[in-house]
Every structure is written in C-alpha cells, then in structure tokens.
Amino acid sequence: MATFQELYQTLLAAQARSNLPEAIKYIRTQQDFDPKQLDCLLNPQKHPLVWRTGKCGCAPGEGACERACAFDAIHSAPEEGGRVAIDVTRCVGCSACIDACAAKKLEASRDAVAAMEAVRRHEGPVYALVAPAFMGQFSEAVTPGMLRSAFLRLGFDGMIEVALFADILTLKEALEFDKNITREGDFQLTSCCCPLWIAMIRKIYSELQSHLPASVSPMVACGRSVKALHPDALTIFVGPCIAKKAEAREKDLAGAVDYVLTFQEVRDIFAAAGIDPAALEDRERDHSSRAGRIYARTGGVSEAVRSTVERLNPHRKISMRTRQADGVPGCRALIDDLLAGKIDANFFEGMGCVGGCVGGPKRIIPREEGERNVDAYGGDAASPTPIDNPYVIELLGRLGYPTVESLLTENDIFSRKF
User: Fold this and answer.
1) pLDDT score of 410
2) Which of 154, 202, 292, 383 has the most CB atoms less than 10 A away?
3) 331, 197 in Cβ contact below 8 A?
4) Does 334 lie in the same domain as 312?
C-alpha cells in the first residue's frame, strides 16, 4: 500500500502537471491506498488538523500524544480500531502530539494539493500572504523579491508581506496600551499574532481574557484587507505554523484566509513545479517597518509596541514594562507568575513556540538562523516604527481609516471580540 508521503508526493506532482483529476482516477483504480488519506489531502478543510496515518499501538490512556497535549484535545479511541480521536473544538494545532508520537503515526494537515488546485481554478486574483519569519527559509540566496517571482510563476497575482499588517496591529496595540494602561496594576496581554497564546488564555486562563487587546492577528488583518480591496480575491497564508490553520478556521475569523500553507509545503510545491526561487528576478517591494518585521521572534512584538508607544506619547507617566515567554510551558509559567502577583510588568508577550515564529514546527532552517535573518531584515527597513511608515498611512486611508486614532474604533477588519 502506498504510504502517506508517497500519496502526497504523487498528488502534488500531478497537480503541478495540471493533470490531478486523471491521477486521482488512476489512484482509485489501483486499490493500494488509504481512501481516508486521499480525502484528507484533497479536502483538508473537512478533517481535523492532525491526521492518523497508521494504527496506534498505545494502550488507552498511555499514549505520549495524550500526555503532550496541553489542551486535552487528543484521546485514544480503541473502539475505532486503534485510532486516536481529535476533539476539533479543543485542538489548536500546537503539534505537540505529532512530536510526541514515537511511531510517527500522526501528521499535520497538508493543504498544498487543495490550495494549488484552487489557485489553478480561481478566476479572480490570488495572493500569497507571507509571514515575517520567511527570510532565509528558502535559502540565504533567496531575496523577498525572488520569492515574489516564484509565487508569480506558480500562478499567484502577487505576494504580500504580512509584516505590513503587523505594523498596523502594532499601531493599534500601542494606541490601546496608551488608552487603557493608566495606573499601576493595569496590564495588557499580547501577542495577537500567536494563536497558541490566544488559545491558552481563552481555553485555560479565561479569567484573563479581558486583558487581551481587541485585535485580530496580522494574518487575519492582511486577509481581510485584501478582500476589502479585492472582494473576489483568493488568499493563501504562508508561514511556519500549524496553529495558523486552526486560526483560519475559527468561526469569527473564517473567510479572511482561504488556505494556510507551511514553509515546508511551499518548498514541496516549488520542487514539484521545478521552480528555483534563487534563479528568478528580484521584484523588490519594501513596504514594512522594522517593527513589523521583528514580530517573527520572541520579544519582537514587545519591542515593536514599546517603540511605537514612545513615539505616540513620549511623556507617559507610566512607562511600558515588558515580560516575554516562549514555548507552551514557558507561557504557562509566565501566566501563573502573573496570577500570583510575582511580576512587576504591564505588557506580557507570549509565543507558543520556543524562539517565536522562527521556531515554528514547519520552519525549514534552524531557529537561531531564522532569528538572525529576521533581525537583519528588520535592520534593513527604511522605517523604524509604523508611525514612520508612509505605506501604513496610505493603506489605512484606502481602507477607510482617516486617522491613526480611528484604529481604536470597532471595525470589521482589525478588531475581534473575545
């Protein structure tokens, strides 16, 4: 029987050759595949974020996957013939169960085949929304402009750096901090960019939910903005994170992003299509500030918001005092210390992966290398903060925000109610 990886590679190659229907028909005549695996690859949105690719041999209650999940989202289900059951209402795509499975019988959702078939069939514009952690992921030789050319080769109409929308969310969170943190003891929780951190607060520490800023993530802000300007657009987010696939499915956020692909999936797509980004034209577009670019590593959001608050209100009586944590255990320890009154800070940043997004489970390069690349790219930015970035002001105007302060009003693009 064909393995899951073999089935994935066969379908991806067929899609790149524009003969996916014929390949599917042939596969179904061979009777040497798992029908559920085929359906998972063709219709990932109909399935949980974690897929079983083989029989589970662990006794009920003894699986490492169950012990690893901080959200109680996976359980053995012997009545289903050795399967594990995923609670889709609790799974946030943290990938802890996948990492813990010694038998390697769990896989994260792979959307590459379905997403690229959607690109081929879509009649409107198609945009790749690329996370700030992308620098160096496809080799040191690949510039942002070369990556843009690679997406154009695949049939996309453009590539948008989500760092520009991290700029806008930085501005929004800075305005909210300046408005809401008015006395000692007040505090704000971030980062809106990390779905694991947000899920942890909502599902485990719900008593702190009121301290979350009413902001969507940069991914959702980017997707919504594209669709506000181009209602018939198809939006595909690209990043190192499985949890972004869960975020895109949340009921109050659904529709902003049509597909989420990981860096590893995009690498597979380039390989199947015979595209070497390093050999392509450098189509440079420089729209984001340092603040938005450094979101990709731990401490970046805190730096971005603090520098922006200082620009907005340099004479604040209560200065921003930040604390950061990364990795799920580290984030839980930070929140426990906060609840115990052990921390003198008023701005708390949590990143679900060690190192931040550059340490995401579907990164291609080592975390430390990713962090260096992000810092270097941030240093190359023409603007230090979103206040200095003319593209932020221009884009806000196009989206119907006449002033920076209008970001504080409730709106359909950048706001979220918890």
Assistant:
1) 73
2) 292
3) yes
4) yes
Sign of CA dihedral 75, 78, 84, 88: negative
Does 81 score more than 70 pLDDT?
Answer: no
Number of folded domains that form the chain: 2
Q: Taking Cα atoms as reference points, which of 56, 354, 320, 37 lies closest to residue 194? A: 354
If asked whether residues 102 and 202 sit together in one domain, one would say: no
| Number of residues written out for the chain | 418
| Nearest-angstrom CA–CA distance, 182 and 7 | 57
Q: CB under 8 Å to 329, separation ≥6 — which residues?
A: none
Pair 151, 182: CB distance under 8 Å: no
Predicted confidence (pLDDT) per residue in 231-290, tens digit: 999 999 999 999 999 999 999 999 999 999 999 999 999 999 999 999 999 998 889 999
CA neighbor of 144 nearest in space, from 238, 284, 288, 294: 284
Same domain? 15 vs 66: yes
The Cα–Cα gap between 64 and 383 comes to 47
Query: For residue 199, which of 99, 90, 295, 348 has the smallest C-alpha distance?
Result: 90
| SS3 call for 345 | coil
Q: Please, are residues 223 and 231 in contact by the beta-carbon 8 Å criterion?
A: no
> 123 and 22 share a domain?
no
- Cα Rg of the chain, angstroms: 21
171 and 87 in a single domain? The answer is no
CA distance 103 to 246: 24
Residue type, 355: G
- How large is the angle between the packed helices 195-203 and 328-339, nearest 10 degrees? 50
Question: Tokens 């359906």 appear where?
Answer: 39
Domain that holds residue 408: 110-418
Point out the domain boundary residue: 109, 129, 153.
109
- Looking at the structure, do residues 63 and 190 belong to the same domain, yes or no? no
Q: What is the DSSP string of 316-330?
A: -SS---EEEEESHHH
- What integer pLDDT is reported at residue 338 of this predicted model? 94
Separation CA 343–CA 154 (nearest Å)? 49
* pLDDT for residue 60: 64
Distance CA 293, CA 236 (A): 19
What are residue 325's DSSP bridge partners? 350
Only one residue has tokens 């109610």, namely: 417
Cα separations in angstroms, 376 against 140, 274, 370, 380: 12, 29, 10, 6
Q: In terms of domains, do 319 and 240 share one?
A: yes
Q: How many CB atoms lie under 10 A from the CB of residue 42?
A: 14
